[in-house]
Amino acid sequence: MGKVYEAIDDRLAELIGRQHVFFVATAALAAEGSVNLSPKGLDSLVILDPHTVAYLDLVGSGAETIAHLRENGRITILFCSFEGSPLLLRLYGRGEVFEPGDEGFESLLTRFPKYPGTRSIIHVSVTRIADSCGFGVPLYRFEGERTQLTAWAERKGDEGLREYQLGNNRVSLDGLPALRGKKL
Q1: Which CATH superfamily is 4-168 part of?
Q2: pLDDT under 50 in the chain at which residues?
Q3: In whole angstroms, what is the distance from residue 146 CA to residue 163 CA?
Q4: d(CA 87, CA 81)
Q5: Which of 55, 71, 143, 164 meets the CB 3.0–4.6 Å disulfide criterion with 45?
């Protein structure tokens, strides 16, 4: 039976810190709208306080999470313990998107390592924290981070990334507004 927690305590923070990947789920409001589930890696998530987390949103082929958060704010983050004791931890909450040029972006950015291709920061006010057993999740061993995303962003350069985002990240698959691009 799963347990619900009042806050991200030291034990949960340590569990979150050990994970090399986490998953983010959002959905459009429309019944025919898409549900998005995205894996995230690198050292891209920070715990800001016992009820708040944030993660770096690096450039990608779509901008579904950004669009869904702008539309309705709903987000769930899932951590799977792939090594050691089995456990799933979900953070349910309300998300907000901070793009370069937005008030608060620069101060949040100081909390993260520098990565080329950072297009936004997703800030989540956590409203529910719950775990479940994870008995059905297989064991996996972490071998290392992939380098393709950051290498691609470095090769593109600032102007290339700007053009890419203008062409690929302004609207979601469902046509919802995504990146505003104050500093695209």
Answers
A1: Electron Transport, Fmn-binding Protein; Chain A (2.30.110.10)
A2: none
A3: 24
A4: 5
A5: 55
Task: Give 111-154 pLDDT, tens digit per residue.
Answer: 999 999 999 999 999 999 999 999 999 999 999 999 999 999 99
Nearest CA among 69, 73, 17, 74 for reference residue 45: 17
**DSSP state for residue 139 in the 8-state scheme:** P
CA 96 to chain centroid: 11
Q: What Cα–Cα distance (Å) separates residue 40 from each residue in 21, 43, 178?
A: 6, 9, 18
Structure tokens at 6: 């009042």
Q: What is the pTM of this model?
A: 0.95
Taking the mean position of all CA atoms in its chain, how far away is CA 103?
20
Cα–Cα distance for residue pair 90/92, rounded to 1 Å = 6
- For residue 25, give the H/E element and its range: strand 22-27
Residue keyed to tokens 């792939």: 82
In 3-state terms, what secondary structure has residue 16? Answer: helix
